[in-house]
Amino acid sequence: MARRGHRPSQTQGNRPRLWGRHAVTAALANPERTVRKIWGTREALSSLNLPPVLPVVYADAADLGRLVPSDAPHQGLVAEVDPLEDVWLGDLLEQGSTDDPERPRPLVVLDQVTDPHNVGAILRSAAAFDALGIVTQDRHAPPESGALARAASGALETVPWVRVVNLARALEEMAEAGSWRIGLTGHATQTLPQSLADIGPSRRIAIVLGAEGEGMRQNTETHCDELAKLPISAKVESLNVSNAAAIALYAVTVR
Questions:
Q1: Are 122 and 94 in contact (CB under 8 A)?
Q2: DSSP-assigned beta bridge partners for residue 38
Q3: Structure confidence by residue, pLDDT tens digits, 224-249
């Protein structure tokens, strides 16, 4: 049977450059990541245990600054890497089946969240709350990049990231695997804590979040089991999607 939820292969030769101590050291520590080349100051490189086959270029801060976007905080380290291998949704759900049945790890689903800083921050929160992984659309999510890896602070290397062609079909696959899908939206009639109160801790939760401004698409909402909102005050209309994800993950973890 064909595997579902697979993202298309990335274009070969499209190697992102990562920068900053957390992003680079996490990439070096990830056995699933191929690091092709590293640039750094002598001070920054002296603290790393680098494989002897890795090409290393010593450079000063000004030279490093020309390798990355303007004003990027490279902290003396830049690495060129291969994109991570594809992750299959079916494999991720199967991996989740080995969780503690009383405390399954949550999933985070992003509907056309395209800002790399937001996706990176969500990856960081997903790592902090031990989420099973994040799921995004293939065409409406940012690629791996230095900015995203910097915002993720190493979590890009540790949190599985599934890219799917059809998000609605992926949500159906999650439901078939036993996940309860809660879409976060401001027009919901109940709050997330109220929704979670009716769900036992042994049920896996998939938190679904939409893009800033537009929110979730209608088709995505219809593929959620229920909709909920965060109990924020009327002083603000909404929260940044990465902040909302962190709060939702905390709520799911402590339920």
A1: no
A2: 56, 79
A3: 999 999 999 888 888 999 999 999 99
